[in-house]
Specification:
Glutaconate Coenzyme A-transferase; single chain; alpha/beta; globular
């Protein structure tokens, strides 16, 4: 693993390692969009719910096409062989089980592996968007988020206080501190990010979690 100084880039780079060959991967808004920088696009196919398969990262301003954007309205590149379709067909792909992996952000994740990623009580929202469809329709769910919010409060909570996005639970949670797996609907930490100690993870996590017997710890370079 190369060492990133930006926590979001670190999370995205680690998430890319969870993608398996020939998988179709939906990238959500925020940190997930950064995964396009690190994914092997000769082996995986990146999908955006507003209607494109074959997304790639933009490496220079010359590549920007104002008509090509992701669900978050940010510019995206088109890989060789990319295809386009309308939103209805895109959601048919999701609901029909044709998307292998969804990489999504989260506002909260709880100790039972539930996900809240679309609404904060008391704040105006436009709607749940594609979160419910993705959680219901994909084969594997990877959540990417900073471990704490801007005030330093844990986003890995005992029980979600924000509206839960779906009954579907996460498979993998990747933060700037650690990687957790869902084992029997309980969070199990299996890997620490470079320079992070288990004591730090425990101190910054509200939810209870188990520790893998094969815990991987990366030394800071």
């Amino acid at each position: 693993m190369s060492v990133q100084t930006d926590s979001k880039e670190l999370i995205a780079e680690r998430a890319a390692k969870e993608l398996f060959p020939s998988s179709v991967v939906n990238l959500g808004i925020g940190i997930p969009t950064l995964v396009a920088k690190y994914a092997d696009l000769d082996k995986v196919y990146l999908h955006t719910e507003n209607g494109m398969l074959g997304v790639k990262d933009i490496e220079s301003e010359e590549e920007i096409d104002p008509s090509l954007v992701n669900a978050g309205k940010l510019p995206i590149g088109e890989n060789i062989g990319a295809s386009y379709f309308d939103s209805a067909e895109s959601f048919a792909m999701i609901r029909g089980g044709h998307i292998d992996i969804a990489i999504l952000g989260a506002l909260q994740v709880d100790g039972q592996c539930n996900i809240a990623n679309w609404a904060i009580p008391g704040q105006n929202i436009l709607g749940v968007g594609g979160a419910m469809d993705l959680l219901a329709g994909v084969k594997k769910v990877i959540i990417t988020t900073n471990h704490t919010d801007k005030k330093g409060k844990s986003k890995i909570v005992s029980s979600c206080t924000f509206p839960v996005s779906a009954v579907r639970k996460l498979d993998i949670l990747i933060t700037d501190l650690a990687l957790f797996e869902n084992q029997n609907n309980r969070l199990v930490v299996t890997e620490l990010m470079p320079g992070v100690t288990l004591e730090e993870v425990k101190a910054k996590t509200e939810a209870s979690f188990d520790v893998s017997d094969q815990l991987i710890s990366h030394k800071e370079v």
